[in-house]
Amino acid sequence: MSAPRTLYDKIWADHLVDEQADGTCLLYIDRHLVHEVTSPQAFEGLRMTGRKVRAPEKTLAVVDHNVPTSPDRHLGIKNEESRIQVEQLAINAAEFNVEYYSENDKRQGIVHIIGPEQGFTLPGMTIVCGDSHTSTHGAFGSLAHGIGTSEVEHVLATQTLIQKKAKNMLVQVDGQLPAGVTAKDIVLAIIGEIGTAGGTGYVIEYAGEAIRALSMEGRMTICNMSIEGGARAGLIAPDETTFEYIKGKPRAPKGEALEQAIAYWKTLKSDEGAHFDRVVKLNAAELPPIVSWGSSPEDVISVQGVVPNPDEIPEETKRASKWRALDYMGLKPGTPITEINIDRVFIGSCTNGRIEDLRAVAKVVEGKTVASTVNAMIVPGSGLVKEQAEQEGLDKIFKAAGFDWREPGCSMCLAMNDDRLKPGERCASTSNRNFEGRQGFKGRTHLVSPAMAAAAAIAGHFVDIREWN
Ligand SMILES: CC(C)[C@H](C(=O)O)[C@@H](O)C(=O)O
Ligand code: SF4
């Protein structure tokens, strides 16, 4: 009998092409997603060396970071740098024979939303993209992670990647989530617990009753933010929820092929007794809705809490950095979170821009009005999410409440287009990063779940969604 293995061990072994004595490995890559920001030099590299894309059918390109989200975006992009990146991807995709979704294609959207939507992302695969949040795809029980531009070139040319194996971490989330508490709160709580460096050198497997109970959307939210916890990737073993989601997706296997695939996918789980180098446990039943207060995703607290006092941190460098964060955020220790007023709300991103997120928002805001002091926008994660939301009439609910309903893209998650905070503006955001300047120069970001962002838009300040009516 061979030793029990983790899911990560299994996918790794199944894709190993070569292993050197020092542990340097060559991995076969099943899927390569490409966006306009990290691919131009990679294609240029191929062009200069006269090489082709090795497996165009395993490569999918889309524009997302730089695209405007205004209704008139088909008129073109004003910012030159953004325009060039977008135009260049169209040129590169055509020249190298790679399927490409332009900003005028209904299938366009954030790269990590369209992969699963198209059935391009499937269990057991190795999936890469020149983007850190590629970890999202791990929700399907695939090994998915971000790569740098030179690696993008390597994968385009060879369909392989040079890697060293990471360690195994298990994050076990038991218990049942209380009403109003979501996948976003789980992952923010995990990062609060392990810190932004806690996952360094690991691939995390999320397991436990609370994870099993999540929809695919919720699982993607969790895996998405693995990178904020420092991990190389995050994954969740596939199950019936996964198979149901995949069935009928454009590129998913069908009929007999699907049955065979599912039989294989069912083997994709960690063996009983498999060794994890680190185990973290959390009880979902005890989790509150969570709000970030600082400039790192580990700076999190319960909505019922107060802004912490950095003076209570024994370690000097950390103390100083958390004071700086409070200064940047314009917050004072001891302020109740529910007394923090906000100026902007951003609902979207590859963390929370899927249909389930928009449904959660609609439920909170239906029949209500955005506070007069707040400017709130909703950016669907893809054209298909937008279409689905409109079919369900969610757009009408949003517009009636005073939300701005936009075209799909990364948008104010990172402010590479015109959607950005003004200096000093405070935003309740469903995205994943709250670094200084992330949503605009001197902008202040609070990371929350979609329902919490929606409620804050109506109230004008954070509220405990559990008490919402
Ligand atoms: C632009 C891209 C390289 C970047 C990333 O890798 O994550 C972006 O998507 C982000 O979220 O900061
Ligand atoms: S939505 Fe945000 S986090 Fe996701 S890929 Fe785009 S910029 Fe990166």
TrEMBL record:
Q: What is this protein called?
A: 3-isopropylmalate dehydratase large subunit
Domain Aconitase/3-isopropylmalate dehydratase large subunit alpha/beta/alpha residues, every copy:
9-460
Q: Name one Pfam family in it.
A: Aconitase
PROSITE patterns in the cross-refs: ACONITASE_1, ACONITASE_2
Q: In which pathway does it act?
A: Amino-acid biosynthesis; L-leucine biosynthesis; L-leucine from 3-methyl-2-oxobutanoate: step 2/4
The record ties this protein, via SUPFAM superfamilies, to: Aconitase iron-sulfur domain
Give the molecular function GO annotations. 3-isopropylmalate dehydratase activity; 4 iron, 4 sulfur cluster binding; isomerase activity; metal ion binding
Write down the species.
Rhizobium grahamii CCGE 502
Q: What is the lineage of its organism?
A: Bacteria, Pseudomonadati, Pseudomonadota, Alphaproteobacteria, Hyphomicrobiales
Give the residues the record marks as binding [4Fe-4S] cluster. Answer: 350, 410, 413
Q: Does the keyword Nucleotide-binding apply?
A: no
Assembly, in brief, is:
Heterodimer of LeuC and LeuD.
Q: Which GO terms describe its biological process?
A: L-leucine biosynthetic process
- Please give the catalytic activity noted in the UniProt record: (2R,3S)-3-isopropylmalate = (2S)-2-isopropylmalate
Q: Which UniProt keywords apply?
A: 4Fe-4S, Amino-acid biosynthesis, Branched-chain amino acid biosynthesis, Iron, Iron-sulfur, Isomerase, Leucine biosynthesis, Lyase, Metal-binding
Q: What gene is it encoded by? A: leuC
Family stated for the protein in its record: Belongs to the aconitase/IPM isomerase family. LeuC type 1 subfamily.
The cofactor note from the UniProt entry for this protein is:
Binds 1 [4Fe-4S] cluster per subunit.
